[in-house]
Amino acid sequence: MLLAIRERVMGVVGWFILGILFIAFAFFGLNSYLGSDAASYAASVNGVEISTRQEDAAYQNLRNRLEDTMGSTLDPDMINEAQLRKSALGQLINEELLFQEAFGGGFAASDQQLAAQISSMRVFKSNGKFSKQRYELALSNQGMTPSEFEGQLRRNIMSAQFRSGIVKTAAPTTEELELAYRLQGQQRRFSYLILPVSGFNDLVKIEAPDVEQYYETHGQEYMSPERVKVQYLELEAAKLKVGAEPSEAELRSLYNEESGRFTTGEERHARHILVTFQGTDEESIGKTTSKAAEIVKRLDAGEAFDAVAREASEDPGSASSGGDLGFFGRGIMAAEFEKAVFDMQVGDRSEPVRSSYGLHIIELLGIKPETVKPFEDVRESLADQLLSEERGDLFFEQAEVLANLAFEHPDTLQEAASVLGLQIRESDWISADEGPGIGEHAVVVEAAFSEDVLLGGNNSNTVEVDEDHILVLRVSDHQKPAQKSFEDVGDIIRQRLQDERARALAKAKGEELLVSLQAGVALEKIASEQTLEAGQTELLGRNASTPQKSLVQKVFSLATPGDGQIIADGFVMSNGNYALVLLEEVNEGQFDTLDASTRMQLRQELGKVQGQVGMVAAMAALDEKATIHIPDNEDRQ
Length: 637
Description:
Elements: H1 3-13, E1 34-35, E2 41-45, E3 48-51, H2 52-70, H3 81-104, H4 111-120, E4 125-126, E5 129-130, H5 132-141, H6 146-167, H7 174-184, E6 187-195, H8 208-218, E7 223-224, E8 227-236, H9 248-257, E9 263-264, E10 267-276, H10 282-300, H11 305-312, E11 324-328, H12 335-342, E12 353-355, E13 358-368, E14 371-372, H13 375-408, H14 414-420, E15 425-426, E16 430-431, H15 442-448, H16 451-455, E17 463-466, E18 469-479, E19 482-483, H17 486-518, H18 523-529, E20 535-536, E21 540-541, H19 549-556, E22 567-572, E23 578-587, H20 596-625, E24 628-631
């Protein structure tokens, strides 16, 4: 089907991804591999060693992703470092298992595939084009050589081929679709009562000794963070001064070289009526063909195209607008559809055109011819491009000099500053969690607190904070963590104790009321006795966000009630309130009510889920037959 159509159809059931079946790319049985032999590696997979350097890099990447995802909401104290490192190693083991299976299965990555993937990566581009200098600099910043990176990328391509062979071949049956939709399309109606934690605040009284005692036993929880100040040199392409403005001849030459960039290809305006396939067997295709033929007869008889499209088209994205798809160029639509449209004249109507999604009856409404922007209209942008390229070349030259000088003189930035004419700047205090200015960049914080820079007193490698924008830094001042004074944290502790005790009282009372609810006392009666108001919903789907998402999630976690059975539960909400829920009605999803296009989309989504499940099963099988050894920490050399 047309790409544009497919994107619009996705919106109809995009929520329908059957989350209950989605299984993460798991890590398998690491504890069973633990051994006792001395080793200088993190793990061995069928005789292939995973180095401790690889483990450290994987751990740091996993931690960075966690910090990027959680942002300011992440509490460092909640991170289980041991589990995070274990997960990182598990990921490396899985990657090695996957690659070994792909390699043994004859999968390969050609030089052409490798070059195409590298040249398409935005991080290696300058002014929209692949830059060898940027490529080498970016890898150098990561401590990698081109051969190391290309070897890893080749492995990734081969592994992806193997993974795709499993994930993309899943084909759910109609029975599986029905079963999945009965569950995922289920609706539930319930009543609820929320016991606010604020109602218990007056019952809590925090005395000064309580606060003092808590500080004595938990003072280590209130530490000022480890902080550093850094000196740094900054190199940014956009601020570099270059030579004279480009000449007219240079601009004309660039315009001719990149004429395609200023050309807008021919576009066509079409509308269509879509009849989707109900299946792939001959009988289903025959029914679709007959239905399309009937539509053609109606159009031949003089019925208006837009009216028939609104009534008969099975494309929910365009049917309501009379099948209108607007203007589009080549490379947007499905190949069969595109060929038909670009072979037509304005006013023509096609016979049914077959694509993988159904039959299309197309009418061409208009043509926009190819247009080319004149030189004068783009002259300024061409000049900017040439100057930017000149700055880029100078930037990469100076970046290499900066990296070399910072390495050759590891205890000072002065040498590099003098040679390049840069100013040594100094940051404000930066902690591992936050900092103003350059401290807002995670890569800067990571470099500042690295062992080589913080403890070794050396300059950092070049740190890329943005495209064509790098730093080299060194620590100029360092403050270790220290326990905060009681005067600084006393009020914080008092409020914490107040909140904890109020939450505990709300939970205890809620659990007491839950016993009554489960014993058959009406929720309205319980609410009245507590001078609260119970709520009641209509039938809701599992993705409903009202009355509150946490209430809906709790209700959909409950078992379906039998005849005369009371299904009630309670839980502490994230804000400390206690919620009681009473499940009153359950309706299964009705698969028969889904239209053809929604069923097709559901089949695709369930196929993706089954593919993921198949991938996990495949990894479990590889894991089971593999010989994997992970030395104990004390046995590593």
